[in-house]
DNA sequence: TAGATTGTTAATCGATTAACAATC
DNA sequence: TAGATTGTTAATCGATTAACAATC
């Protein structure tokens, strides 16, 4: 129904639409979305046409309907129970990240091996020891895990999560984690990668501009 | 020389190669890299062939040479001075992120508007007020900025950064920031987007497996 | 009706991949 | 030499985009 390329843009449309809605708009045109996201307007219409006829010719798209439809497609229009494994600097930051809650992701548990952290609070949650992982995941029907442990620990923790039935892992540890078996989907996020892409883009835009540097 | 698709994979190769090197390997084959990154081996060879003949037929690629070449291409084989604007939870986490230093990015300054934060230490740095931004950027030859301020403040801070000559901004604020003029390159990182992609991947892999849910 | 914008087609463009000769 | 793996071609596949009829 949707190509991979389209799927990867749906979250971007969603964010932009929510921004427009908050700013008071109720309708939007393909050209507006395209400009704001640096895309082509044909591309936007083609992406959105996968939902069936949603727009009105001559008028545009109803923002509210678009948001609901995209959310339905992306997240099944339901909330997901998420746990955080590894409450270091990054883990703490991620737990406070507004965007997650907004998009239907509920942080229901936080885990760390460090005995000094266990028992402390993280927002409204109490940090639990890693031993509790298995019981908690089963009793709370947790499906997704955010992994922010040190690189060295990441593969073994990922394996443990898979064994107990976690279906998706968002890995922030600076190491590529591949699924031990294939019952779990792992998305690796590398923050340094983004900075490298930025540096490359800056270098090439300078070259284009004719600077010698 | 390199397609966009190839460029976006170079940082992934780099990370994988550094991991292999740390594990004691000195050579690697296209098939090995492909498997570890979920790519096709032809694709890996094609990507790497842009550097000229680097591999040895029948043997593979020298890891050390590959790393150096990729680093050269991506970052100009030099270090970049980076500042952090917005020292909240996320900013603090980013400042401690190992991956940045490893890839040649040096955090040279940290800024926040909050008077209670100004003067405090962040690692080896002292947090400065936003007023110091312009002077600091010019005297320290800062080129890149990591933006982790609240969404509402992001566009105006981005504009300020552009005016004073910053050439690249990595934006973590949960809002799409587009360059006011075109003298700056902005890369928007949305952490919730990754979680949404994961959720979608989980949903579709379930459907494929025939679960009704 | 006149103006605007969608939905969709067809053409173009670019990226992936299988295959294999070259060669270490 | 025999085995392995690169570098590169050619074919395939998929994604983007211009264009325009449909229609609000």
Please tell me the total number of domains of chain A.
Answer: 2
Count the beta strands of chain A.
10
Helix content of chain A: 40-55%
Number of helices of chain A: 9
Topology summary:
The structure is a homodimer of 213-residue chains.
Chain A: H1 4-22, E1 27-28, H2 30-37, H3 41-49, E2 55-56, E3 60-62, H4 63-75, E4 80-85, H5 89-95, H6 98-102, E5 105-112, E6 121-122, E7 125-129, H7 133-140, E8 144-147, H8 154-163, E9 168-171, E10 185-188, H9 191-208
Parallel strand pairs in A: 4-5, 4-8, 5-7, 8-9, 9-10
Antiparallel strand pairs in A: 1-3, 2-3, 6-7
Helix pairs in contact in A: 1-4, 2-3
The first copy, chain A, binds a DNA duplex (24 and 24 nucleotides) through residues 3-6, 29-31, 40-43, 45-46, 48-49, 53-61.
Structure report:
2 copies of one chain form a homodimer. The first copy, chain A, has 9 helices and 10 strands. Chain A has 213 residues and is an alpha/beta fold. Chain A folds into 2 domains: 72 residues, Orthogonal Bundle (Arc Repressor Mutant, subunit A), CATH 1.10.10.10; 113 residues, NAD(P)-binding Rossmann-like Domain (Rossmann fold, 3-Layer(aba) Sandwich), CATH 3.40.50.720. In chain A, a hairpin with a 2-residue loop joins strand 6 and strand 7. The mean pLDDT of chain A is 90. The interface between A and B is large, with 62 and 62 residues. Chain A binds a DNA duplex (24 and 24 nucleotides) through helix 1, helix 3 and strand 2.
């Amino acid at each position: 129904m949707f190509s991979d390329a389209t799927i990867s843009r749906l979250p971007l449309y969603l964010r932009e639409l929510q921004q427009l809605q908050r700013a008071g708009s109720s309708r939007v045109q393909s050209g507006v979305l395209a400009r704001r996201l640096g895309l082509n307007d044909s591309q936007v219409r083609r992406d959105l046409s996968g939902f069936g006829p949603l727009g009105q010719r001559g008028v545009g798209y109803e923002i509210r309907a678009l948001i609901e439809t995209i959310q339905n497609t992306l997240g099944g229009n339901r909330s997901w129970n998420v746990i955080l494994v590894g409450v270091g600097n990054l883990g703490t930051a991620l737990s406070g990240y507004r965007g997650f809650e907004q998009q239907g992701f509920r942080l229901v548990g936080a885990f760390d091996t460090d005995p000094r952290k266990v028992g402390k609070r993280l927002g409204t949650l109490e940090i639990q020891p890693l031993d509790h992982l298995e019981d908690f995941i089963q009793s709370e029907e947790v499906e997704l895990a955010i992994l922010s442990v040190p690189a060295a620990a990441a593969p073994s923790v990922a394996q443990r999560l898979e064994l107990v039935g976690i279906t998706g892992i968002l890995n922030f540890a600076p190491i590529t984690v591949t699924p031990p078996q294939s019952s779990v989907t792992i998305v690796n996020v590398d923050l340094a990668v983004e900075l490298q892409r930025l540096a490359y883009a800056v270098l090439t835009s300078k070259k284009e501009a004719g600077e010698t540097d």
